[in-house]
Design brief:
Blueprint: E1 2-7, H1 11-23, E2 28-33, H2 36-45, E3 50-53, H3 62-72, E4 77-82, H4 87-95, E5 100-103, H5 108-138, E6 161-170, H6 174-177, H7 181-187, E7 194-198, E8 203-211, H8 221-228, E9 236-244, H9 250-261, E10 271-274, H10 287-300, H11 304-321, H12 326-344, H13 349-360, H14 365-378, H15 388-405, H16 412-418, H17 423-434, H18 438-456, H19 461-467, H20 473-484, H21 488-495
Parallel strand pairs: 1-2, 1-3, 3-4, 4-5, 9-10
Antiparallel strand pairs: 6-8, 6-9, 7-8
Length: 496
């Protein structure tokens, strides 16, 4: 339900509009005022979504009310209804960004048409406000433009629900082209109610609402992943989070999901990952062998960071799966040690034989892991990372590439190829040095460039959208409001 404030000095006119709202079951609760001064008092003390005002009233007329209301509440939706239809009133109304101008006596069809449109607008604003709040929470800080100085809440009723978050990550920027694709695809696979927010053009975050009183209807990640895969979208990664009981847990869980998402580089296809370390419980064909192929590739590329991370992921996967025999896991470890041995150029067969015997003699997974790490340490595969100076040089080059190419469809792979690093290592290094993912940083740069173009040029919003790398103008406007707290048009008006 939305709240409307009806302002008219004639009681019968207010009653007539209230009856129309009730008769046609419009989702509105009504506040009333007899003049502009009374209306301003209500606007200061009540949450109002729509202001519907007459023009000719005592104490403060409707146009002055519109001016003061717009200054007080820049995003308020304002409608005028008046018997005075002269051009001068309509022209002045435009200055105050009036959504609709209705003439008395009210034409019922025109009334319904106007209110259908205004309710749709309010619903869109409400959805964006919800996304605004959710993004502010999951990042555990408020963007400078996200409700500055105020406390952000998710709007989720944690007294009634527990929440499971799932992060959808596409290699391609699918949400730029189809920003509202998630609800339709998820509803066809999952019966559990959910909220969602597009984090950027590559990622969408789901908040599944599990009833505390009833039996939780847990969504099935594998079934959802299957629904999300489309041939033209490239690889899809789904990160399934743990059950959360409090709003304060959202930010930490999202941070963990972003960390787990880095493991996607070790899987060759679309994959489900888990924040609770249970990777492998899903029936993923050839998971281990494909993972090991990627680990070996990092070894051949001399990416020690990627290799070490891949080995850790291997042990995490076999530990959580319960699907693989001890003999098979030990065999894979001997293969791993053999590859490391060959890469190092060692030819001491007796020493190698001793390592293999140590692996097969391990009595637990922990002991097996210790054996493998001992070999890696001995052969220099747990050496220090490249120097801080080298890392800063790489990041400087990446920032320059982003600055020069933000208007194009740049990706992590494109950037990694240009600085001769693997995606795994570049992703790690960028996050370490800059404090956020490359995808987030590119979106932030585009939003900053868009703000500068709105301030300093007369380009249309559609032209600016294209110049900063967005295919879809409406998606650009949506993301701009999330980052800057207002629409591009409002930003330009206030910046001017």
């Amino acid at each position: 339900m939305f709240q409307i404030l009806i302002v008219d000095d004639e009681f019968i006119e207010r009653e007539g509009m209230k009856r129309l709202i009730q008769k046609y079951k419009l989702p509105l609760t009504v506040l009333e005022a007899e003049n502009g001064e009374e209306a301003m008092g209500l606007l200061r003390t009540h949450p109002v979504d729509i202001l519907l005002t007459d023009i000719k009233m005592p104490f403060m007329d409707g146009l002055e009310l519109c001016r003061q209301a717009r200054d007080l509440l820049p995003e308020l939706t304002i409608m005028i209804v008046s018997a005075y239809g002269e051009f001068e009133y309509a022209q002045r109304a435009i200055d105050y960004q009036i959504f609709s101008y209705l003439l008395k006596p009210i034409d019922v069809n025109e009334f319904i048409r106007a209110f259908t449109q205004v309710i749709e607008l309010c619903e869109k604003d409400q959805e964006q406000e919800k996304e605004h709040r959710l993004l502010g929470l999951i990042h555990a800080y408020q963007h400078q433009a996200l409700h500055p100085g105020g406390e952000v809440t998710s709007g989720i009723d944690f007294a009634r629900h527990r929440v499971q978050m799932m992060l959808i990550d596409y290699d391609l920027p699918v949400f730029d082209a189809e920003q509202d694709r998630v609800p339709v695809m998820v509803k066809s696979a999952v019966a559990t109610p959910f909220e969602y927010v597009n984090v950027n053009e590559h990622q969408s975050l789901l908040f599944f609402l599990l009833d505390r009183k009833g039996q939780p209807q847990m969504p099935e990640p594998a079934k959802l992943l299957e629904q999300l895969i489309r041939a033209d979208d490239g690889r899809v990664t789904l990160v399934a989070g743990s059950l959360l009981n409090e709003e304060s847990e959202l930010a930490a869980e999202f941070k963990l999901m972003e960390s787990v998402l880095e493991d996607k580089f070790f899987y060759q296809g679309s994959t489900v990952l888990f924040t609770d370390g249970s990777q492998g419980k899903e029936e993923l064909s050839d998971t281990i062998s494909k993972l090991m192929d990627t680990v070996y590739w990092h070894l051949e590329m001399k990416d020690d960071y990627g290799f070490r991370k891949g080995v850790e992921l291997f042990f995490k996967t076999v530990d959580g799966s319960g699907q693989h025999s001890a003999i098979y896991i030990k065999y894979l470890c001997t293969q791993l040690v053999s590859k490391v041995w060959e890469t190092s150029g060692r030819d001491d067969n007796q020493a190698f034989k001793g390592m293999v015997e140590g692996i097969f003699g391990s009595k637990s997974l922990a002991a097996l892991k210790a054996q493998v790490h001992e070999v890696m340490a001995m052969l220099g595969k747990e050496a220090e990372e490249p120097s801080a100076e080298q890392g800063k040089k790489v990041i400087k080059d990446i920032l320059k590439l982003i600055e020069d190419n933000y208007m194009s469809d740049i990706s992590l792979k494109w950037l990694a190829d240009r600085v001769f690093l693997t995606q795994t290592y570049l992703s790690y290094l960028f996050h370490k040095e800059v404090g956020q993912t490359i995808v987030k940083f590119i979106t932030l740069v585009r939003m900053q460039k868009a703000a500068a173009l709105l301030r300093d040029t007369h380009l249309t919003i559609a032209e600016i959208s294209q110049q900063v790398g967005f295919m879809n103008n409406s998606y650009f406007c949506k993301m701009f409001k999330i980052y800057h707290g207002c629409s591009p048009a409002k930003f330009r008006e206030t910046a001017g």
